[in-house]
Every structure is written in C-alpha cells, then in structure tokens.
Amino acid sequence: QIVYLNGSFLPMAESQISTQDRGFLFGDGVYEVIPVYQRNIFRFEEHLQRLKNSLQATSIVNPFSDDEWLEILENLVAKHPWNDQYLYLQVTRGVQMQRDHLPADCLTPTVYAYTNPLKPVAQNIIENGIKVVTLEDIRWLRCDIKAITLLPNVMMKLAAKAQGADDAILVSREGVVSEGTASNTFIVKDGTLITPPNSHSILPGITRMVIESIAEQQNMPIVEKQISLEELNSADEIWLSSSTKEALPVTQLDGKMVGDGKPGKVWLQMHKFFQEHKQ
Ligand code: PDD
Questions:
Q1: What is the pLDDT of residues 127-165, one digit of tens each?
Q2: With a 6 A CB cut-off, is 207 part of the ligand 1 pocket?
Q3: What pLDDT does 261 receive?
Q4: What is the position in ligand 1's atom list of the atom closest to the CA of 31?
Q5: ipTM beyond 0.90?
Q6: Angle between helical axes of 44-58 and 66-78 (0-180°, round to 10)
C-alpha cells in the first residue's frame, strides 16, 4: 500500500512522522474520509470545502491549492487496484520540538493521506440492519469540525460494544439527538424523513447532504429539525449515514425493535436510489 506523506509517495511500512508532531501529542489536526466509486472521487468539492472549513476553524494552514489536493488524491487512487476505495487524509498543525499548548508561528503542517478498499455494505446488514444504543453525547461544542481528536467517539463506541450493540446514537443532556459516533442520524416518521439541522453539535455529513438531495429529486418528504429522544424511540425507521457505510438501517434501539425489526421500506428505496446515484 502506497501512502502520501509530506510531498512523497512511499510504501506505508516506510512512512514515519516525528514523535513531536502536534497531531500525536495534542490531537491537533483535522481529517477527511472520502469514498471513491468506480475510481471516481465522490463529491470531491464538498469534502474539500469541509476540509477547508475545518482548517480555517482551527487556524491550521491549508498547505495546498484545490488542484494540488486533487492531484495527490487522484494519484493515490491510481496507484491502487481497487475500483471502490475510501481515501483518508489528515493535516496536523506540524512538528514542534518544544511541547507547548500554544502553537509556534510558522509551523509546516504534516500532510498524510492513504487509501483503502471500500467494501460494499454487507448483505447481512442490508437484510437485518444494525443494533444501536443511545448514549449521552460526551463530546465538545465544535462537533462541526472534523478533528482527529476522537477520544470521546472511541469511548462511546467501546461503551456501545460493551452493551452488545454495533454503534451508538448520541443524545445531548437536553434530550436532543445529535448523531452517531461516526455517522449522521435520520429517522422516518409517517413517511417523512427527518434529520437534525447542521449546527456545532454535529458534523455536516456529505452522505447526509447526498441523501437529502436524492430525497428532493425523488419527491420523498424530508425535513431538517431537531429530533427528541421520544421521537427517536417512536420512529418508524432509523438510519445512520457515512462515507464508508452509505445509509445503514437501524433495526434495534436500546434492545427494542425499530418498526417491525426489519430494514424499513423508505430505507430500501433510498438504498436503491443511492446505488444508482453512485454510478
Ligand atoms: N466519519 N458524524 C461523525 C461524527 C463522523 O465521524 C462522520 C464520518 C459523519 C458522516 O460524515 P460523512 O457522510 O461526510 O462521512 C458524521 C468518517 C467516515 C470516519 O471518521 O471514518
């Protein structure tokens, strides 16, 4: 596997960064995950815009022009045999020999990117869906930034696993649904698709955006509004969306069946439209 690191393409086993990298010491960096379908980078502009937003919000220098980013990512895709892939890229603030919360001026960002084979969603999940538990959202107040600092997400994923679930849906202390540990949330109620509006509490997911535009094209009723824990509990369908999973049907919530315990019919429609949309 060939990776990109600070200007070079090299085998993953030979790629090394400094122990003084601020990404390593402080989690001081941002990232993106971008799907590639049939060797085409999916929604490149939208992912790049979100990366630029994350860099700007954290005052990390954007090291490249849009064309340079595209060239690096296209190069990575071309160097690997898989038709469907997902690109991971991360930019940290850079290496600083003296550990200090305050970043030194003029650091050079560390840029790392690599690609993986993207597997289709497993047949078992398409047929049976996934089990999810609700957990308190223990994250910070800038979840709109795609920060590499993922300790709360990891802890919540572990807590979900410990309860025998595949994932968690995060709920604020006020009882408002935010998102999954690495995905956005949708519910279906009486035929209407509902997803929380973008805010500092969630990541503005690109898959979420794609699902919204498909729903609009197909005249499927869709609204953006806050979802309460009660509404989540009484939803006809629940989905989680992300770049690596598309839209996943949730068929069990906190040990109780969602709908009839099978992936819902609105999800099935969206799944079909999504496959067409990817081509
Ligand atoms: N995560 N919310 C969170 C907290 C996420 O980490 C992600 C994606 C999403 C969905 O965003 P998108 O549709 O743009 O992938 C929402 C990626 C896949 C990850 O961390 O691996």
A1: 999 999 999 999 999 999 999 999 999 999 999 999 999
A2: yes
A3: 97
A4: 20
A5: yes
A6: 120
- The per-residue pLDDT for range 175-220, each reduced to its tens digit, is 999 999 999 999 999 999 999 999 999 999 999 999 999 999 999 9
Give, for ligand 1, the residue of 115, 143, 184 to mutate: max count of ligand atoms closer than 8 Å to Cβ: 184
State percent of the chain over pLDDT 90.
99
CATH of 123-278, one of 3.40.50.2300, 3.90.180.10, 3.20.10.10, 3.30.565.10: 3.20.10.10
Question: Does the Cβ of 184 fall within 6 Å of ligand 1?
Answer: yes
Give nearest CA residue, ligand 1 atom 16.
Answer: 183
What's the gap in Å between 97 CA and the centre of ligand 1? Answer: 32
CATH topology of domain 2-117: D-amino Acid Aminotransferase; Chain A, domain 1 (3.30.470)
**CA 174 to centroid of ligand 1, rounded, Å:** 23
Q: Where are the beta strands (DSSP E) in the chain?
A: 2-5, 8-11, 29-37, 40-41, 85-92, 110-117, 130-136, 167-171, 177-180, 184-189, 192-195, 222-224, 237-242, 246-253, 256-257
What are the residue ranges of CATH 3.20.10.10 in the chain?
123-278
- Average pLDDT for the chain: 97
Tell me, using a 6 A CB cutoff, whether residue 203 lines ligand 1.
yes
DSSP 257: E
Give the span between the Cα atoms of 253 and 251, in whole angstroms.
7
Average pLDDT over residues 8-25: 98
pTM: 0.97
Cβ(243) – ligand 1 distance below 6 Å: yes
